[in-house]
Write a structure and sequence with these properties.
The structure holds two protein chains of two kinds.
Chain A lengths: L1 E6 L4 E8 L3 E9 L1 H5 L6 H23 L8 E7 L3 H18 L3 E5 H12 L8 E6 L4 E8 L2 E6 L6 H12 L5 H8 L24 H14 L5 H27 L3 E5 L6 H13 L3 E3 L3 H4 L3 H11 L25
Parallel strand pairs in A: 1-4, 4-5, 6-9, 9-10
Antiparallel strand pairs in A: 1-2, 2-3, 6-7, 7-8
Helix pairs in contact in A: 2-3, 4-11, 5-6, 5-7, 8-9
Chain B lengths: L2 E5 L5 E7 L2 E7 L5 H16 L8 E7 L3 H18 L3 E5 H11 L4 E8 L4 E9 L8 E4 L9 E4 L6 E4 L3 H12 L6 H6 L9 H8 L2
Parallel strand pairs in B: 1-4, 4-5, 6-9, 9-10
Antiparallel strand pairs in B: 1-2, 2-3, 6-7, 7-8
C-alpha cells in the first residue's frame, strides 16, 4: 500500500511516498527558511505564495525519487491542520485534485498527531500503545498520554510560549539569527550550562508549562552582565533550563502513568541537550525512548503519510469536502 | 474543444464550461467554503455539461486580481490537475476579461480599467480598444479612480467610473482564442500563478524600514 503525503502547514513544503506506513520511498522538503529569515519569522502570505510555486516541482521530484507512477498511489494524505490557513489550503487543494482525479481516498491528517508517528517511522515501526508523547516545537509544548490510535489525553500544555518560540525570541534578542533552536544550540555548544542560574518555570506546580518567564530571565542576565556576558554559557544555561523543565514534568508522568514508552516529537526534539536529558530519564525509568531523526523532527510529509496509513479508518467518507482548520485539536473530529 | 473555467477571485465562485456549441456560466455562493467545495463545483459543472473530466480539452483559471486565498486554492487545484492529466491550462485575468466585455459593447479607443483593493488603493490599467493589450497594473489612490475620462470599474462604481459587467460571452471568446495556443508542459503550468499586483504587507513594511 503506497501513501502519498503532502504537508504545507507552515514554512516547509513537503511531499513524500511511504510504503505500508513504515518504509520511506521518498521524503522531500523545500524549506523557506532563507526567505523568512529577513523578517525574523514566518510571514503567512509570503509562505502561501512560495508553497504554490514549490509544490508541483517537489511532487514530481518525489515521484521520480520513489520511482513510481501516479497510478500506483493507493491513497493521498494531507495536513488539514493545525497550522497557518493560507499555507494549509495550498497543500489541501493540491491533494484534493490528486485524490479527485486518481479516484483514490483522501486522508486529512492532524499535523501534531503525525509528529508523534514520525518517531515510530524513524525506527521503521508501527505505532505501539500506550506511550507518553512530548511534542515540542515552535508552536507546541504538549505532554500527552496516548492510549490508542488517535486517543489522546492531554497531561500538560504551555500557558504562553512554546519552546521553539522561546529560542526564536531569545536568538532575535541576542542577535544570533533565525531560526532560534539551531543557532542557540550551536552557540552554546562548549558553554557551561550551570554558569547562569535561570528559573525552572512552573517547577513543583503540576502539569503545566510556561516559557515566557525564561525569556525575561535571559534578558535580565544580558542587562546585568553587560560586557562580561558569555554568550556560549548563556545559551548552554538556557537549554539546560528548558531540558530540566521538561524532565520534571515527564518524570512525573512516567511515575504516575507507569507507561514504559516515551516518544519525543517536533522541531525542538532536534535539540541535543534535550535529547540527552530525555535519554537519561528513560534509562533511569527503564522506559523505551523513541526519537525522530533530525529530518523527521521538522515538518515533513513522510510523517503525514505514515500517520494516514495507521489512521485511515477514522477519515470521513466524504473527505474530499473537508476544509483546512487552523486550530484542529489532536484526536478531534475532522472538521467540515 | 471543451473547457472548464474557475474564477475564485471573490466570495462567490464563478465557473463556466464551454465548447463550439456554446457556454454555460454558473455562480456558487461559496463564501469561505470554496476550498471545501471545489471538487463538488467541478463535478456539478461537468455534470451540467454532460461531460466527464477526460472529455475536457483545456482547463482555465482566473488569475485575479482578487481574493488571494481563493485564487490560490483554484490555482493549486487546476495546476495540479493539468500536471497530472497533461491537459493544457490557460490563465485569464480580470483586466483582459473586462476589456473583451467592453469591446463586445462596441467600446473603442483609449480607456482605463480600475479595480479596488482591500487597502485604500485601486489597481489601474490602460488600454486602447480594440486591442486587448493592457499596461501592467499600477496602484493609484482609490479616490483618484474617477478623475480620468472613459474609466471603467471592475466590481466598482464611484462617480466618474462606470462598472463593467464581466460578460460570460466575452470570457467564452477569450478562452476559444487562447485554447488554440495553450501549452501543457510543466514550465508553462508553473508560469500560471495568481496576479500578485501588490507585495505582501510584510514585504511592504520591510521595504519601508530599509
Amino acid at each position: 500500500m503506497i501513501t502519498l503525503g503532502i504537508e504545507s502547514s507552515c514554512d516547509d513544503t513537503s511531499a513524500a511516498l511511504i510504503k505500508d506506513g513504515t518504509q520511506i520511498l521518498a521524503s522531500l522538503v523545500s524549506s523557506q527558511i532563507e526567505i523568512h529569515r529577513r523578517f525574523g519569522g514566518v510571514v503567512p502570505e509570503v509562505a502561501s505564495r512560495k508553497h504554490l510555486e514549490a509544490i508541483l516541482p517537489l511532487l514530481s521530484e518525489a515521484m521520480q525519487t520513489a520511482g513510481i507512477t501516479y497510478a500506483e498511489i493507493d491513497q493521498i494524505a494531507v495536513t488539514a491542520g493545525p497550522g497557518l490557513l493560507g499555507p494549509l489550503l495550498v497543500g489541501l487543494s493540491t491533494a484534493k485534485a490528486l485524490a479527485w482525479l486518481l479516484k483514490k481516498p483522501l486522508i486529512p491528517v492532524n499535523h501534531i498527531e503525525a509528529h508523534l508517528t514520525a518517531s515510530f517511522l524513524a525506527a521503521g515501526r508501527r505505532p505501539e500503545y500506550p506511550f507518553l508523547g512530548l511534542i515540542v516545537s515552535g508552536g507546541h509544548s504538549n505532554l500527552v498520554h496516548v492510549t490508542g490510535s488517535r486517543q489522546y489525553k492531554c497531561l500538560a500544555q504551555t500557558l504562553d510560549d512554546a519552546p521553539g518560540e522561546l529560542f526564536d525570541k531569545v536568538a532575535r534578542h541576542l542577535g544570533l539569527g533565525y531560526p532560534g533552536g539551531p543557532v542557540v544550540q550551536k552557540t552554546g555548544e562548549n558553554g557551561d550550562p550551570k554558569r547562569y542560574r535561570l528559573p525552572r518555570p512552573m517547577a513543583g506546580k503540576g502539569y503545566v508549562f510556561s516559557f515566557s518567564g525564561l525569556k525575561t530571565a535571559v534578558m535580565r542576565v544580558v542587562e546585568n552582565e553587560k560586557d562580561a556576558l558569555n554568550m556560549a554559557d548563556l545559551c548552554a544555561s538556557l537549554q539546560h533550563a528548558v531540558a530540566e523543565t521538561f524532565a520534571e514534568k515527564v518524570e512525573m508522568a512516567l511515575e504516575e502513568t507507569g507507561v514504559k514508552r516515551l516518544v519525543m516529537a517536533g522541531g525542538v526534539a532536534a535539540n541535543r541537550p534535550l535529547r540527552e536529558r530525555m535519554q537519561q530519564l528513560a534509562d533511569r525509568h527503564k522506559a523505551e525512548l523513541l526519537l525522530p531523526t533530525i529530518h523527521l523532527c521538522t515538518d515533513n510529509a513522510a510523517m503525514i503519510a505514515a500517520h494516514a496509513f495507521f489512521t485511515a479508518e477514522s477519515a470521513p467518507a466524504n473527505s474530499l469536502e473537508v476544509n483546512a482548520v487552523a486550530t484542529w485539536e489532536m484526536g478531534g473530529a475532522h472538521n467540515f | 474543444m471543451k473547457y472548464l473555467f474557475i474564477d475564485a477571485s471573490e466570495n462567490s465562485t464563478f465557473a463556466q464550461t464551454g465548447d463550439t456549441d456554446g457556454f454555460k456560466p454558473r455562480s456558487f455562493a461559496t463564501d469561505r467554503n470554496f476550498a471545501a467545495r471545489i471538487t463538488l463545483i467541478c463535478d456539478e459543472m461537468l455534470g451540467n455539461a454532460g461531460w466527464s473530466f477526460s472529455d475536457l480539452d483545456c482547463l482555465a483559471l482566473c488569475t485575479g486580481p482578487g481574493s488571494l486565498t481563493g485564487l490560490r486554492v483554484a490555482a493549486a487545484f487546476l495546476r495540479t490537475a493539468a500536471m497530472l492529466t497533461g491537459k493544457p491550462l490557460v490563465g485569464v485575468n480580470l483586466f483582459e476579461w473586462s476589456l473583451q466585455s467592453l469591446l463586445n459593447q462596441k467600446k473603442t479607443g483609449a480607456i482605463r480599467v480600475v479595480m479596488p483593493t482591500l487597502i485604500d488603493k485601486a489597481f489601474m490599467v490602460e488600454a486602447t480598444l480594440p486591442s486587448l493589450h493592457h499596461s501592467n497594473p499600477e496602484l493609484i489612490d482609490r479616490s483618484a479612480s474617477g478623475t480620468h475620462p472613459d474609466t471603467y470599474g471592475i466590481r466598482f462604481t464611484v462617480p466618474g467610473v462606470t462598472e463593467v459587467k464581466l460578460d460570460p460571452a466575452a470570457l467564452h471568446e477569450i478562452l476559444c482564442k487562447k485554447e488554440l495556443k495553450a501549452a501543457a508542459g510543466m514550465s508553462e503550468i508553473l508560469n500560471i500563478l495568481p496576479m500578485y499586483v501588490i507585495p505582501s504587507q510584510a514585504e511592504r513594511k520591510f521595504k519601508e524600514n530599509l
